[in-house]
Amino acid sequence: MNVFIYVDTSKDVGDPDHLKVFATADTADTWLEENEPEGVAFEYEVLECKKARRLPLLTSGAYSDGPSVLLAGAVSTDDEEPPP
C-alpha cells in the first residue's frame, strides 16, 4: 500500500498542517488543485509491522492510538519497551 504525502514547508514540524497524507493520487491531486496549485505530493510505501503500539505525539507528549502512518524510524512492535 502506498500513500501520497504533501509537506507544507512554511509550517513547523509537529504543526497539524505541516503534513497532508492522502490515500490515493486522485485525492492528492484534487486537494492540491484546490489548496496548493503549485504543490507536489510524493508517493511513499506504508511500512507494516506485527502490531503497532501507541506512539507519543511530537508536539504534546500525549499518546494516540488512532490510525497512523508510520514513517521511517517510527515503527514499533510489542517486542520493544514503551517510551518513558
Could you explain the architecture of this structure?
By secondary structure, this protein is an alpha+beta fold. It folds into two domains: 2-46, no CATH class; 51-84, no CATH class. It has one helix and five strands. It has a three-stranded antiparallel beta sheet. A two-stranded antiparallel ribbon has the order 4-5. It is flat. The protein starts with a strand and ends in a 20-residue tail after the last strand. Residues 60-78 have low confidence and may be disordered.
> What topology, given as strand order, has the largest sheet?
2-1-3
- What is the beta-strand fraction? 15-25%
Structural class: alpha+beta
Pattern of helices and strands: EEHEEE
Write down how many β-strands occur, each being a DSSP E stretch of 2 or more residues: 5
Query: So how many helices?
Result: 1
User: What is the end-to-end distance?
Assistant: 32 Å
Low-pLDDT segments: 60-78
Mean pLDDT over all positions: 76
**General form:** flat
The overall number of domains is 2
Helix content: 10-25%
* Rg, Cα atoms, Å: 15 Å
Q: Main beta sheet: strand number and arrangement?
A: 3 strands, antiparallel
